[in-house]
Write a structure and sequence with these properties.
5-stranded mixed beta barrel, 5-stranded mixed β-sheet, alpha/beta, 10 strands, 2 domains, 5 helices, OB fold (Dihydrolipoamide Acetyltransferase, E2P), Rossmann fold, single chain, about 240 residues
């Protein structure tokens, strides 16, 4: 191998390494805009900056969010105007962002889920983003916790479900008290010993989503990257 070839190879290697480090330094970012179909592709249109980026969905399916306002987490390749998407989620409805008064409710309580309401009241009070009200008829939103998936029956149901409910999963849904629609929801499969911790974690996730809607993305990026949503924590209830 001659001297020139070795030098050229070394220069190419340094350039590739520098490019890789530059891309890694950019890291994940969060973007807020509208997912729009442009020909055969989907793009993210950001009205505030008038920027338009192609979406490289990977395992995500941008078509499921077509025409919606979304939050996108991914890595921006400015050279080709493309966001390599790691996660995508629909933006929270205006009803959530405009709400002030919250009622915390729990299905199958008191029993195995008894810790959920106690933890939820404490977390919402500490948050200071919403005011807790004792009467659900006054609330703008219902924070509903249950050991069962939400069936859209908050308005029509009559009290708790009959019989004991095994607590394997803690579900949280943000309910419109006038329609019964779930405006946001998630769950933690942490078992009965960690209902309090699961509740705290779910409210923390929702809080980060609200922050992201208001332009504070840092917490959501860290949560999305580092948090194992399905593993039980080491802490107690």
């Amino acid at each position: 191998m001659n001297h020139r070839f070795r030098m050229a190879k070394a220069i190419i290697g340094i350039a590739v390494l520098f490019s890789a480090r530059s891309l890694a330094a950019q890291g994940e970012q969060a973007f807020k805009g509208a997912c729009v179909k442009a020909g055969a592709k989907y793009v993210l249109s950001i009205p505030e900056t008038k920027a338009v980026y192609k979406l490289d969905g990977g395992l995500m399916k941008p078509e499921a969010f077509a025409g919606q306002n979304v939050l996108v987490i991914g890595t921006l390749d400015e050279a080709i105007g493309t966001i390599h998407v790691d996660d995508m989620m629909g933006a929270l409805p205006a009803k959530v962002m405009q709400a002030v008064l919250v009622y915390v409710d729990c299905v199958d309580c008191p029993r195995g889920m008894a810790a959920a309401k106690k933890a939820a009241l404490r977390e919402v009070a500490d948050w200071k983003r919403f005011y807790l009200v004792p009467d659900r008829r006054r609330a703008n939103l219902i924070f509903l916790f249950s050991a069962r998936p939400y069936l859209g029956d908050y308005i029509t149901r009559d009290g708790d479900h009959p019989g004991p409910t095994p607590v394997e999963v803690t579900y949280m849904n943000i309910i419109d008290p006038r329609t019964g629609e779930s405006l946001w929801g998630d769950s933690r499969k942490w078992g009965s010993w960690f209902v309090g911790s699961a509740t705290k974690d779910l409210i923390h996730e929702f809080r980060l989503r609200v922050d992201a809607e208001e332009g504070r993305f840092e917490g959501l990026l860290s949560f999305d990257k580092d948090h194992n949503r399905k593993a039980a924590p080491n802490e107690g209830k």
